[in-house]
């Protein structure tokens, strides 16, 4: 099987792909769930991908303003940035059910609608409503994270590599837009509430285009043989747990950085607008790395060297932010962005450590389900440590320890073995 066909979707959250394909097969007979690829559907996929990060990355640059307005603590802020990870962990269980009940196309539309509603809801009242609305919005993102990569694979079978690259670039670009445009929107619209709510417009646009594209296409049935035999459990595989720890630790670091880096930079003297731009740059750095490094690493006998090498860049960035945050924020951000680009190798490792598509699906589901639960602890713990110590040194020491453990687990997971 070619490596490309085995690599999970670019967001790494369709570990139950085989179950979803079963849902596609069932619904395509009567509901037109998966459509033959076309230009309009490609546009709909790109617009959907653009929505899968701004709801998260737009919060960081405005977090201190929201906290002051609501009278909330840093622990509350950590909880706010923990919600996405919890939703992503649960999505693997709920998304296949939704796809079976509604059909793939309708399920994606529901996800976009839920996202838009949550983005508006979370700015209507106090701290609890903000948390609730964020939960709703990220639930929509979580569903789309799982469903859209399957649509890409099934609707563009002759252009999987191209569409996966475009999807990945759009996803990362959406994250950059969320962090870099939120401060200007805050100034232009008169506050953090309308600035955050404005991202619902992008979700509505994606929903409209998606509905038109899915209505205009023709359903394409999925080969029943793709479902294969029931997959074996990997819970007793030591290698599967190493891959899971590797995935979870890199996600732990990423969630902390997305939620807290702007505040750290602003405390170091960086303006709100520049802090947002730097977070956007951090997201953009991953685009070329994600497109270039994984294919090269996949052709190597081992991916361990690549994983450790990128981790060293991340260590340098964290050390700079710990010891001299105001000396060169741009350099520290670039180094940290290079380190966090290991996300793409985490996805590649999941595919390469499994022999069959069934095992790939099982390993992906296990790594993402447990991994995102581990990641969800990160922002909350980072904020709590900041509250307890009154500074950033102890939280950053924790991140350095996490990154070292990630490099160790990644070096083991990158060896050419199979679960």
Structure at a glance:
Helix 14 (304-323) runs antiparallel to helix 15.
Please describe the structure with a list of short key phrases separated by commas or semicolons.
419 residues, globular, Growth Hormone, Chain: A, mainly alpha
Describe this structure in words.
The protein has a single domain, classed as Up-down Bundle (Growth Hormone, Chain: A), CATH 1.20.1250. Helices cover 77% and strands 0% of the residues. The chain has 18 helices and no strands. It has 419 residues and is mostly helical. It starts with a helix and ends in a 6-residue tail after the last helix. Helix 12 (238-267) runs antiparallel to helix 18 (393-413), helix 14 (304-323) packs antiparallel against helix 18 (393-413) and helix 16 runs antiparallel to helix 17.
Draw up the topology in text:
Layout: H1 3-6, H2 17-28, H3 39-50, H4 54-57, H5 63-70, H6 74-102, H7 104-121, H8 127-155, H9 160-189, H10 192-197, H11 200-216, H12 238-267, H13 272-299, H14 304-323, H15 329-340, H16 342-352, H17 357-389, H18 393-413
Q: What's the CATH H-level homologous superfamily?
A: MFS general substrate transporter like domains
Report the mean per-residue pLDDT as an integer: 79
> What is the count of β-strands?
0
Per the CATH scheme, the topology name is Growth Hormone, Chain: A
Following the backbone from N to C, one meets helices and strands in this order, namely HHHHHHHHHHHHHHHHHH
């Amino acid at each position: 099987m070619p490596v490309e066909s085995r690599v999970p979707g670019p967001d790494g959250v369709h570990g139950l792909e085989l179950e979803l394909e079963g849902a596609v097969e069932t619904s395509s007979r009567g509901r037109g769930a998966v459509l033959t690829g076309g230009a309009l559907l490609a546009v709909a996929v790109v617009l959907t991908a653009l929505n899968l990060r701004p709801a998260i990355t737009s919060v960081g640059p405005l977090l201190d303003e929201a906290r002051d307005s609501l009278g909330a603590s840093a622990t509350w802020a950590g909880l706010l940035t923990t919600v996405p990870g919890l939703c992503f962990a649960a999505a693997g269980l709920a998304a296949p059910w939704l796809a079976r009940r509604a059909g793939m196309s309708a399920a994606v539309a529901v996800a976009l609608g839920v996202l838009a509603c949550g983005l508006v809801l979370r700015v209507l009242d106090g701290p609890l409503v903000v948390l609730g609305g964020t939960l709703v919005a990220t639930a929509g993102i979580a569903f789309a994270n799982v469903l859209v990569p399957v649509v890409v694979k099934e609707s563009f079978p002759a252009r999987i590599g191209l569409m996966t690259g475009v999807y990945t670039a759009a996803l990362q670009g959406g994250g950059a837009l969320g962090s870099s445009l939120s401060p200007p929107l805050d100034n232009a619209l008169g506050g953090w509430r309308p600035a955050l709510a404005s991202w619902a417009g992008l979700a509505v646009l994606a929903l409209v285009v998606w509905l038109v594209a899915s209505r205009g296409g023709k359903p394409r049935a999925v080969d029943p043989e793709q479902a294969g035999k029931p997959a074996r459990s990997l819970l007793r595989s030591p290698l599967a747990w190493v891959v899971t720890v590797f995935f979870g630790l890199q996600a732990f670091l990423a969630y902390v950085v997305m939620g807290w880096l702007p505040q750290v930079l602003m405390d170091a003297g960086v303006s709100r607008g520049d802090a947002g731009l730097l977070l956007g740059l951090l997201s953009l750095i991953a685009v070329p790395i994600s497109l270039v490094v994984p294919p090269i690493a996949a052709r190597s006998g081992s991916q361990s060297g690549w994983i450790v090498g990128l981790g060293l860049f991340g260590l340098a960035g964290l050390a700079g932010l710990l010891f001299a945050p105001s000396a060169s924020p741009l350099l520290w951000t670039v180094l940290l962005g290079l380190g966090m680009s290991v996300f793409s190798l985490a996805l590649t490792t999941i595919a390469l450590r499994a022999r069959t598509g069934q095992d790939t699906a099982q390993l992906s589901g296990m790594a993402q389900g447990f991994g995102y639960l581990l990641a969800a602890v990160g922002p909350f713990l980072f904020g709590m440590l900041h509250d307890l110590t009154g500074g950033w040194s102890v939280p950053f020491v924790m991140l350095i320890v996490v990154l070292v453990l990630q490099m160790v687990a990644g070096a083991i997971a990158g060896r050419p073995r199979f679960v």
